[in-house]
Specification:
about 220 residues; mainly alpha; Four Helix Bundle (Hemerythrin (Met), subunit A); 9 helices; elongated
């Protein structure tokens, strides 16, 4: 009974956070909502005794990937006004994606007609059962090539994000590494010899009562 209550609580938070990802107008808030989605998903995985997946989701996605996403989102300097102007143009693609998701949800709800018994309660595993070992055996044997392909896709996404941040923008100051390395010591400092000059009639920045620079102050004579 407690597991079911916790499942519905985490599921409600997960759905609300997912809506926040797509409904928020600020990209940073959307990324933070996605972090909440990952945390609640990890909690649900703990309820189904998938401890390894829950820990990996928190450590890898929340602790590393989402931090990278936040830095990338803040460095991209996304123009929200421009995104809102193009919303109507690509609205049909959003509706098409939403329709596909709705069809998938309906297919899961009516899975009994496809020969899948979703009412069957999972059997508790033994105390010496290791889901980490089972996951590793399947991941590095049967799904080894899809795993490597996912790693390459993630690498391409990181390179693309870096390339977007390095694009030329008006007023952007780019660091020239080659020029900095080729700099010589005599080019860093230039000493110019000038004849000493004495200022006359000028006052020091200390105020009206300050004397001329380089001269001693004389006491004022009162009548």
């Amino acid at each position: 009974m407690l597991v079911e209550v916790l499942f519905y609580i985490f599921s409600t938070i997960l759905v609300a956070a997912a809506l926040g990802v797509i409904a928020s107008r600020n990209a940073v808030y959307s990324a933070l909502s996605l972090v909440l989605c990952f945390v609640t998903s990890a909690a649900i995985w703990l309820l189904v005794e998938a401890e390894f997946l829950a820990v990996v989701l928190v450590l890898v996605y929340v602790g590393a990937v989402m931090v990278l996403f936040l830095f990338v989102v803040m460095m991209l300097d996304v123009d929200l006004e421009e995104l809102r102007e193009g919303f109507v143009r690509y609205a049909w693609l959003g509706w098409l994606t939403a329709a596909a998701v709705i069809v998938e949800i309906v297919g899961v709800v009516w899975a009994r007609q496809l020969g899948v018994d979703i009412s069957k309660v999972p059997v508790p595993v033994a105390a010496d059962y290791s889901n980490t070992r089972e996951l590793g055996m399947i991941l590095y044997t049967k799904y080894a090539y899809p795993f490597e392909l996912a790693a390459v896709i993630l690498l391409v996404a990181i390179v693309a994000a870096i390339a977007l941040t390095m694009r030329k923008r008006p007023g952007l100051k780019v660091q020239d590494i080659n020029r900095q390395v080729a700099t010589r010591s005599r080019d860093r400092l230039r000493i110019i010899k000038m004849d000493a000059q004495k200022a006359s009639g000028s006052r020091a920045p200390g105020g009206e009562g300050a004397g001329v620079a380089g001269e001693s102050r004389q006491p004022e004579k009162r009548p």
